[in-house]
# Entry
Amino acid sequence: MTAPETSTPRTTVEYIRYRIPEERSAEFLAAYTRAARELAASPHCVDYELARCEEDFGHFILRITWTSTEDHLQGFRTSDLFPAFLAEIRPYVGDIDEMRHYKVTSVRGTGSAVPTLYAWAGGAEAFARLTEAFYAKVLQDDLLAPVFAGLAPEHAEHVALWLAEVFGGPQTYSATQGGHSHMVAKHFGRGITEPQRRRWVDLIQDAADEAGLPADAEFRSAFLAYVEWGTRLAVHFSGPDAKPPAEQPVPRWGWGAAPPYRG
# Structure
């Protein structure tokens, strides 16, 4: 099963650097706490964060991610939200050292403080066990067996590589099988029905139990979120009017709303 198309983000990041005297810092923070209500209400604001320097408490940096620079300047600043926002921060405009928009470069990534779903699951061996157990069930299932008639012997192995890559593992599927478009193409013309999709979801959850994948709520909610998302797109791409998506990398799935539980 595949995952949704992604596109190059248009977002821009605005950085505003302040130098605020210690005696005004409490009122400055209070003002931005109030002003943040307008940011939170704006459809042009993706997220925001006000940080304070640890080495020099007088230095603050406000980071706002906007849907685009134009949306910030022509959208938010001309909206009904801006007057109330400006009224709160106006006393501190003279304390601004820098106020500019930045575009994110290709140099970005994540560290290892939070394990990937791939690592949490147990790595390549865990996904190999998962697909082995899953396809053993599929081939004995009256509803799904016809969909997978003539299954190639290496199919389960390839799906294990796909899932491993999606959940943060090595990019082996992309290197050996052709990436996202290759997986999407496998669904064309198959006419997958909603009952078949539901059975797929049920059986892979049963296989996850049988294969000994982690059963904690955080992992399983992220795992099931991908399964739901991917299977629904598989139904779409298997339909009669489906068109091939633009070339794109294999999606990388994260923890979502709940990071791994560590007690």
Residues 1-8 have pLDDT under 50 and may be disordered. The chain has two domains: 12-102, 117-237. The beta strands are 12-19, 45-52, 59-66, 96-102.
